[in-house]
Amino acid sequence: MTRPAHHRRRSARRSIRGGTATKRIRTFLLFEAIAFLAAALVHSGVLLHGYQHEQARTAESVISLALLVGLVLSWIRPERTREAGIVAQGFALLGTLVGVFTIIVGVGPQSAPDIIYHVVILAVLVWGVAVAVRAPRQDAPTEATATEKGVAAPRVTAALSGALALGVLAQATFAGGFLSGHLSWLTWHENLGDLLTLLPLASLLVGLATRRHQRDTTSMLLSRVALVAMVFALVVTGYDAGTSSGILAVHIPVAVAVVGLVVYQTVISTQALATPTSARIRDRSGSRSGETRNAPHGANATDSQSAPAHQIEERP
Question: Which long-range contacts (CB under 8 A, 24 or more apart) does 221-227 make?
Fold first, then answer.
């Protein structure tokens, strides 16, 4: 049964508002995650010296991670973007209020830049939470929407992305090891970093080589190119980190961005793996419905099939 025109228009307007709200929530989550990561790097002495504060660095790192998790969840389950934005930003807002309280009682950082940062980020978080709360609820994506996520060689892409994710996790482990005094782990960190450059490069070549059979969406192709560039940037900044501590201010955020891209590619590739089966089911159902529509109906069909040939010819 066809819905009335005003219902369709209302659904279209709601879909447009939902898409705009999703983009705004993701923008807030990304900006806030970068802001807290930058603050953590400042309080660890990487970006600036003279503002080291261990407790603030730990809290800001946890908040940044929570916001990044919310951002990733908004890509994995777009219909849950509103909830992810409320929970992640609500957690960040609560943590920031605790930080403001420590500043008031004299335990937290007391510098003027710290106070200004907390006031600004507090206003941004309140704004972001308000945007997420006012965002319309979204329905789960339909089967047709899921099949629009084109990925060239999704099985190979998912495997390469998963291998790169494990490699990045191992790299973080090796980095923590040599920073703790195990200098031999630095060699493992460097060698593994050189090997990991092959994975995004192979993913890009596979995507380009199989475009004739199934094309990537523009966002997926751009993510392959960006991943190659960022992994090579990680290797270059990793070798230069020993000569300049400021290089870590680039190395660490790029590593976090690589993790985000790897998760994005893995999720999209996994969703695309189900597309061929779904398409075949729709094709079969479509052919069956076509046969039903083309088949004769009712008593007239029975009469025409059972009537003798001379009676059929006499009918006008």
Answer: 223/261, 223/264, 223/265, 224/200, 224/265, 226/261, 227/164, 227/200, 227/203, 227/258, 227/261, 227/262, 227/265
